[in-house]
Design a protein that fits this description.
Elements (H helix, E strand, L loop, with lengths): L3 E5 L4 H17 L2 E9 L12 H25 L4 E8 L6 H12 L3 E5 L5 H7 L2 H8 L4 E4 L6
Parallel strand pairs: 1-2, 1-4, 2-3, 4-5
Helix pairs in contact: 3-5
Length: about 150
């Protein structure tokens, strides 16, 4: 089955939900789990006078690393063999989805797990869909978890 599961997550409800499901799957299959957080720094205004890019970048890197560390700790509490990677995207030419796909290939992941925001229509058009782009380019199985519906 799956030996190496890459879960790409952010600090959102869908990201946390996908992490939980990836941990469950890794625990059942005995797979290694790699937690990936791709930190998009390209949106920081480097030329704006009121923004200290270095300070903002460092703060976001620290928060991103804390997210990865907490996710890895959560997996290890479930007795899952886990590690974590924080990868910054610093230019508009770099894409979050391409970074996820490249990390999956570099690490030889058997499966990529992602949460989706469930956007549609204009919102999806304006924000794009990282999950959809990963699904199209991954070249390996991708498991997507939509937001949980309140019942």
């Amino acid at each position: 089955m799956f030996k190496r599961i890459l879960v790409a997550m952010d600090d959102t409800e869908p990201g946390r939900h996908a992490l939980g499901k990836a941990i469950e799957l890794a625990a059942v299959t005995g797979a290694q789990l790699r937690v990936l957080h791709v930190l998009d720094l390209a949106d920081l205004a480097r030329d704006a006078e009121f923004v200290n890019w270095s300070e903002q970048s460092a703060e976001r890197m620290n928060a991103g690393q804390a997210l990865v560390d907490a996710a890895v700790a959560r997996a290890r509490e479930a007795t899952v063999d886990a590690d974590g990677v924080l990868l910054p995207v610093e230019t508009k030419e770099q894409k979050v989805d391409e970074t996820v796909v490249a990390q999956a290939a570099d690490w030889s992941a058997d499966l990529i797990v992602l949460g989706t925001h469930g956007r549609s229509g204009l919102s999806r058009l304006l924000h794009g869909s990282v999950a959809e782009a990963v699904l199209r380019a991954a070249g390996r199985p991708v498991l997507l978890f939509p937001p949980e519906k309140d019942e």
